[in-house]
Structure formats: C-alpha cells, structure tokens
Amino acid sequence: MTSTLNSAPIHALHTRRSMKFLRAPAPRPEELEQMLQAAMAAPDHGALRPWRFKIIRGEAIGRLADLALDEVKRSGDKRMTPEKEKSVREWLAGVPVLIALAQKINHDNRKVPEQEQLLATGASVMNILNAAHMLGYGAFWSTGLGTYLEPVQEALGFDALDYRFLGFLAIGTPACAVPPANRPDFHEFVSEWTGPTAA
Fold it and tell me: Which residues are FMN-binding (predicted)?
C-alpha cells in the first residue's frame, strides 16, 4: 500500500531550486517568521544553535551594496568590473529581503567539533530555503557581496574570530518563470555497504 500522506512535502523538496532573480512582494512578516522558525528544526549536535541571521531590507540593502562593492574593489578583485558592479546593483535593486548568514564558533566546546557546528548551520539555512519554496517564494544563497572579506563581515557584526560568515539568502517573489531543474538519479551517488572488503 502506497501512502500519499507526505506526497505534497516530498514533492516540494524534489522541486525546490535556487532562484536568483527576485522582486517584491517580500514574504509577509508571519511568513518570514515561519521560514526562520524552520531553521530551528535543523539537526544540532549539543543543541549549540550556532546559526545567526541578520535581516536586511529596504534602504539597508543599498547601504550593504555600497559597503560590499567598495570593499571588493579595495581588495583588488579584478572580477569586479564596472559591468559586473552594474549587474550586481541591478540584481539587488529587485531583491526585497536579504538574510546575512553566519555560524557562531563555540570555541569552548570540546565535545562538538567546529565542522559539526558548521554542518548544523548549513542545515538550518537549507530549512529556510525549503520553507521559502513551500510558501511560494524564491530564494538564492549567494556567497558574493564580499562574503569572504573581513571588513564586510565585521560591518555586519560578525567578528571573524568568533563567527564564520557564510553569505546571504535573497528571498522574494520569482521575477520570471524558472524551468524545472534536471536532477540526477540518486542511484548514481548511492551504494550499499555490507561489511569490510576481504584482504
């Protein structure tokens, strides 16, 4: 007997995909709260809750663009051509909500390795992405905008000694139709282990 009880959530997981080009309307406050609450359900060894989020919207997105693009150019990154800067600003002009993402490093916890804290944070972000899709919004995880530059991290309140900065989630209404993703068959990535190989 085949159960259809979870068919809708499973279908949502199978059809989620990144959507870079977004526009208003943004999620309503209660919808954004649902997305962020979904992050709290991430697997989390030691219940450290290492994820940290900062919501950026309205005029603050423009201020972030000024800060981040200036720092990228100051870093000497030759990829930041005038054309690239123009396209980034145009992209951000349409994005109604950004969430800055970081992992708080628990230096004193010897039981939970830092990589497990990082994995928990990544899982929390994936929950936000899935929740956004299930609520009918598009989302895109960007590691541009000076993600790996300390002045950008610190301006957002994430000191590099205590946080690992992981980029930004852009969330909004898809600005154009996005075709379904061509997903690989999971069999290509799965094998079964039955015991040690004989020497």
Answer: 16-18, 45, 141-143
Average pLDDT, integer, range 107-132: 94
For the chain, give the mean pLDDT. 93
pLDDT digits (tens, 9 = 90+) for 140-156: 999 999 999 999 999 99
Give a yes or no: residue 193 inside a domain. Answer: no
Residue 166 lies in a domain: yes
How far is Cα 23 from Cα 37, in angstroms, rounded to an integer? 23
Q: Is 16 annotated as a binding residue?
A: yes
State yes or no: pLDDT of 3 exceeds 80.
no
The CATH number of the domain where 152 resides is what?
3.40.109.10
Residue 152 CA to its chain's centroid (Å) = 17
Global pTM? 0.92
Q: What is the domain range of residue 152? A: 27-179
| Cα three-residue angle 134-135-139, rounded to 5 degrees | 80
17: in domain: no
Q: Is 141 annotated as a binding residue?
A: yes
pLDDT at 8: 86
Q: Does any domain span residue 185? A: no
Q: Is 193 labelled as part of a ligand binding site?
A: no
Please give the tally of structural domains in the chain. Answer: 1
To the question of whether residue 75 is assigned a binding role by annotation, the answer is: no
The response to whether 4 counts as a known ligand-binding position is: no
Non-local (6+) Cβ contacts of 16 within 8 A are: 129, 130, 133
17 assigned ligand-binding residue: yes
